[in-house]
Amino acid sequence: TEIYTLSLHDALPICVFMRKVDTEVRMMTAGQQVHQSIGRAAAVLDALAAGNGSSLRASEIAEAADLGLSTTTRLLGTLMELGYVAKTSDRDFVLGPRLLALAAAELNHNTVFRESRMLCQELARITRLSANVAVREGVRCLYLCHFEGDLAPKNQSMVGATIPLHASGLGKCLLLGTTQAQRVELLGAQLRRFTRFTVTDHEELTRVLGEVADAGLAVEEQELALGRVCLAAPIRDRSGQVCAAISVSGRVSLLKELDRGEIEEQLFEVADRISVNLGHLGGTSVNHTDRKSVV
User: Are the C-beta atoms of 212 and 218 separated by less than 8 Å?
Assistant: First the structure.
């Protein structure tokens, strides 16, 4: 066995290298811990948000977030100090007011929201129904605007809420321009059923989207919730791509009493005005004569 000895001159570069490696490992470990803490804090906020306005106890939050009780309690304390969580009693927690400021800032920076808010509000007034604007967020449809007409009052805001793409009028508009293969990859091979009217087959969804593309209108009747109907139209950006959708909705019985043709015309007009505000000057990136390119 040969024994090698290193001079100080030879050993110094190795020491420097090992110290650099040790520093990088420590930084990586610290970074992972920070990322883990942020993820856990987000899980706590998500658990509170899923409560739909109801207060939750620390044990309930820990179970929903899949975290230990001590970890959850510590995170709740930090989030309370920052204003992201508030207490309604000694043991009950809700989302804090700081989140409202963040949500408002996000909305006000959103071009679709800015260009559609007042028009959506006016649509609710003239149709007397709920009027909504939404965009696609991953595999869900995200509400940016929600206004109630006098015939469709609600005691909760839908802004920030999400609904499935395949089972909603808004979502069907947002799926225009995708191929069936893309939708299978995005939504999964099996589409979730919400009522007996929900489209759960991709072939059927493809056929429905072809009708939506041809008519410029998506009609969703009792697919997501029984007794509810939604009429939706796509909103296009400067490139002609569908970037958002706008809808009116209400009870099935209520829509039967109103002039649906007039409501559709009002919906089309508002959708066109928002599209123009976003730079769309007519035409579309989708060729309606080529059904396969549409769906």
Answer: yes
The amino acid sitting at 231 is: L
Distance CA 125, CA 151 (A): 10
Helix/strand/coil for 141: strand
Do the Cβ atoms of 224 and 93 come closer than 8 Å?
Answer: no
> What is the chain's mean pLDDT, rounded?
84
Alpha helices in 50-139 (DSSP H): 58-65, 69-82, 98-108, 111-127
- Residue 20: the pLDDT is 53
Separation of alpha carbons 284 and 286, rounded Å: 5
Residue 104, C-beta contacts closer than 8 angstroms, at least 6 positions apart: none
Tens of pLDDT, residues 257-266? 899 899 999 9
pTM for this prediction: 0.75
Q: Residue 13: what pLDDT?
A: 52
Closest CA to 44 of 32, 30, 25, 58: 58
Beta strand residue intervals within 69-217, DSSP E: 85-87, 92-95, 130-137, 140-147, 162-164
Q: Is the dihedral of CA 215, 218, 220, 223 positive or negative?
A: positive
Q: What confidence score (pLDDT) does residue 17 get? A: 47
The DSSP secondary-structure symbol of 295 reads: -
Buried b (16+ CB within 10 A) or exposed e, 141-163: bbbbbbbbbebbeeeeebbebbb
**Is residue 51 very low, low, confident or very high in pLDDT (cuts 50, 70, 90)?**
confident
Pick the more confident residue, 36 or 206: 206
Length, in residues, of the chain: 295
Token pair recorded at residue 172: 């069907």
Q: Could you tell me which of 191, 275, 214, 291 has the C-alpha nearest to residue 241? A: 275
Tokens of 1: 């066995």
